[in-house]
Batch of 2 targets.
Target 1
Amino acid sequence: MKKIIITTLAILITTLSFAQIIDDSHAVSKCFHNHILDKTNHNNPKQIALESKYDVKFYWLDINLERTSTTISGNVTINAVVQNAPLDTFEVELVPQLLVDSAKINGTLITAVPDSNFVYFLLSTPLAIGANFSAQIYYHGNPPSGGFFSGISHANSPSWGNEVVWTLSEPFHANDWWPCKQDLTDKADSSWVFVTTSDSNKVGSNGLLTNVVSLPNNKARYEWKSKYPIDYYLISVSIAKYVDHTIYAHPAGTTDSIMIQNYVYDNPQTLPHFQGIIDSTAQMIELYSKLYGMYPFKNEKYGHCMAPLSGGMEHQTMTTLGYFDFSLISHELGHMWWGDHVTCSSWSDIWMNEGFASYSEYLCREYLHSPADALDYLKTEHTNVMSSPGGSVYVTPANTNDENIIFDSRLSYDKGSSILHQIRFELQDDSLFFNVLKGFQVQYSYGVASGNNFKDYLNAHSSIDFTDFFNEWYIGEGYPTYHIVWNKWNDTLYFSSTQTTSSTVTPLFKMLMQYKLLSPGGDTLILEHQTANVNYFKVPTHKTITGIVVDPNDWVIDGTATVAMGIEDQTSPVCFSVFPVPCNDLLNVYFSNSPGKDVHVIVTDITGRQVLQTLAETNEISINVEGLQAGVYLVMATDGTHSITKKFVKV
């Protein structure tokens, strides 16, 4: 999913097109906050217990809809198998605005008992574990609507004038328009979506359009069928007056072509306006098939349905989107691998969907545009991540009912994307990085996975242990900033790297860092591992060094570094750094060499008046400065022969 609130669409260069896109992107997003507050708590123990008793095998939606209204009627068949315990109560989720007319289990009528956002069906004879059953539920009503996060919506495109009804069920809004089981870990093995509507409409949905049946009274039934496993929130319909613009991709490694079926507004200007960027979808499928493995739904299709929503939603095999641009298409297409083929196992791990899809945008820019374009995209992500000091990519279970937290653009999307880039940097091997992505897709094919699953796979298939990395970057919060002090003596460059962090939740990021050593004789790139808040490095070099640039290629999320040339001899027994600066309570003093006997550390105010003193007996000491007034102080280390003085600020 990609939700756009405010955007600048540089790809669309005409004034008319820019105005049209902004119009559509604001049409829905401005009111979504009001809708989400009324949703059910999806950690309901009763619901979890009842839904755990059956495993869905097949969904068949056979419904009636028009492009003019969200009023819905029809029936849904759910084929399932009993698991864990005998089934005495069959439960589905359905909002109270939708009324159950009748229901059957294995052909026998059964009474429906509605209760809030659920409907219960009490079986006179429990079904045994392992029993297959088929439930068919007839229903009708006027679903709740309004806002981006709405199960079903109706609107006219402000840009093009077309009237549309469309669905968007993520994360838990499928029950706004059909009776279902909203459990990420229970994918149906296959699905059918049949929609009866006026024959002037077209209906887009999942899988292949197997038939369009002409019916009396100027009606038609669109019959879409998919043989691939699918999660509940990825089932969709879009209804409007569309034209079908179909193209084909030809990924390497297969002689088959992949159909890309685009349902574009039936408007003389719409397809000509977007056709160039729509046709680039084929290149993207070919690229992702190379980087991630073959397009996972190649025996059916990929496609798009237009609807006036602010962004797009990755409905399996047929994305629903408000407009076409490079960023939106590449993001939603990336979801076919990351979100649809392999789906997050809980909303806590939305990174498996949105972080990977956002990084797919970066990869498309890197491989199909230019490295410079990709770098600009990455810098924008980093800027957004660092616009606030805290927040975790991992969504705690307590927050998995809050769509604003799940779909936080700064964390789930931009930081999620950026830490994938950092994993690529840590590996220092692009071939290995993409082999990990391909292998992970194979291992969790058509299933679900968590961030921990990805960490474990990464650990098993590389020579690096990413446990600390995930604790710091995925579970942890914030980002680092570096302060470098350097000098060159003879043929050795000495520098200290002091890392401070933006959040106390994560006081240290143990990480690989790239440095550029500036020299008139040619710059040099080096790699060093930050293993503590202060590290000291020695680099042999015959070159004249004029400066150091931290993270010159923006591989990592880090604040603006400070770099200073130190005046002290790095071989001195009293050479030291202080951390943090500014300081509130504990001032840490780190000696780059083992201090000799009788090394005194003296703190004075700016006038030279001594306020604290201690003896340095190890490489690292801490001085409690909590009792000092706020201001500028000096700290001096001396052994009577050598001395170095530095400044720090008490806040």
Target 2
Amino acid sequence: MHLQRPVNEGFLILDYGSQYTLLIARRLREIGVYAEIIDGTRQTEPKEDFHFHGIILSGGPDTVGDEGARSLPAWVAASKKPILGICYGMQLMAEASGGKLRSGHEREYGKAHLSFDFKELPKYAESLRSLPKDQIVWMSHGDDVEAPDDSFVTLARTDDKVVAVIAHREKPWIGLQFHPEVQHTDHGEALLKAFVFDICKAPRNWDSSQMLNASIERIRQNVGKGKVLMAVSGGVDSTVAALLLTRALGQEQVHAIFVDHGLLRKDEAIWVQDQFKSLGVHLTTLDQKKEFYEELAGITDPEQKRKIIGRKFIEAFEAFAKGHKEFTHLGQGTLYPDVIESAGHGAGAKVIKSHHNVGGLPEKLALELVEPFRYLFKDEVRIIGRALGIPSILVDRHPFPGPGLAVRIIGAIDAEKVRILQEADAIFIRQLHEHGFYSQVWQAFAVLLPVKSVGVMGDNRTYQDVCALRAVTASDGMTAGVGDLPISFLVNVGTEIVRKVNGINRVVYDVTTKPPATIEWE
């Protein structure tokens, strides 16, 4: 049984496959309202115990009207709720009302300048008048609205004359060709607030800092006197979840299991055991390095790596649980982005990567599932961690993927490559701490590339591996900028890696944002 949602009212976001969909939900929570994401192709109005004040239609990769393209469900318009259509969502709104669309005429990617014209502003949208007439927004589209139906008024166009904002003359429907949820849109937050509070009249009902006591109460209601087998990785999410469950239920009802798959950071297994001991959480470590290495031998496809690791995790837990029949629940540190990303919402939505901690285990183990963070984002989990008193060295750790170094070694994996990458990564992270840069970036790590380069050391020719360093800035990982680390610092890190890590003779720095790249290389 999943824990019930934190609140029973807020906003529905219909997902049409945009990589920004989760970011919409995150931005709404930041301004003080709860939001959930559902499949944009869902044909029936959600009837669960959830009252929604408005609907947001996300962007997406489809072209409206193409075979297989996602369409606007009839219940959306019939709901009589305010609607905000973003990018593809705006095109769906316009098409449903008889507007004319076009494909590939004026592609816009990146920042664009738009100008508002408020002469025909509908009365329900009067709060938009407070927005600057001229502003910079973030575009990402190949299709656009050539001419909306007469029931809509055009409120803004870009310098390329693309229709950027439309509003229905009577219904509280707003369409935006740009993305207000990304930080690159100058007044995106103000626009979202205008829709949420002025047009939808929604009350504020979300405050991340008030979640701890409510989370403890929900855990006690769901688990009762049962016993939880808690899957932990040593990362922020599962660590905070393990301590939260222990605080809610007591030490005797929670037992954490840590699988050492041999793909961890340098000395990670010992570090994790020490941390859990200091937190007062019961922990058992399962040494599975040999088993994981054997299964991963020769595997180069990143999605196949993730699936193998997910299956091996299931097998390890299954073997442990068979000898411990006292457990009634399985605990996981699953986050809301894990659930949505793995689900691949909508017809033709792009699954970027699978997550080994989503699904599979309860069916195998016949245990009830308890996921206290299933509806939360990572920064919200960190807030709970701080409220629990977890030290910053743990709660502020950079994210680390469940498959570990398997997705940071490009190509096939073996113990020697793991050793090489562990040493390089440890040098990078240590130097970030020593120079005060660790807290200035959201995530940083080293990647071992399947590329060899010629070098020279002590007048001898070398032919060794290339290591890439990556550091990004982000608030939630759904978009990310490049960590602005001084070149002198990077040179020092590269010099130490090449000097101390046998097997690497060249270091490069990744300067790609997300999008278009993901943060991890695989």
